[in-house]
Amino acid sequence: MAEDMTRAILKALAELGKPAKAKEIAEKIGVPTSKVSCRLAPLRKKGLLDSPEKGVYVITEEGKKLIK
């Protein structure tokens, strides 16, 4: 299940094609914002996401490889 959520978050960010907040990502994949928010920091630590400014996330090249 966690793996599915990871892929959904990464895919949503790739499709949005721009920096996005947790709320935007959650709306795109149809889950509560809290489900997305708690996963963002661990994904960033793994190098799958980057945060160009506080509360805003983008997918990294490493993250894109995971969803191909």
Automatic annotation (TrEMBL):
CDD domains: HTH_ARSR (cd00090). Gene3D superfamilies: Winged helix-like DNA-binding domain superfamily/Winged helix DNA-binding domain (1.10.10.10). One of its GO terms (molecular function) is DNA-binding transcription factor activity. InterPro entries: ArsR-like_HTH, HTH_ArsR_DNA-bd_dom, WH-like_DNA-bd_sf, WH_DNA-bd_sf. Residues 8-50 form the HTH arsR-type domain. It comes from the Archaea. This is HTH arsR-type domain-containing protein. It comes from Geoglobus acetivorans. The lineage of its organism: Archaea, Methanobacteriati, Methanobacteriota, Archaeoglobi, Archaeoglobales.
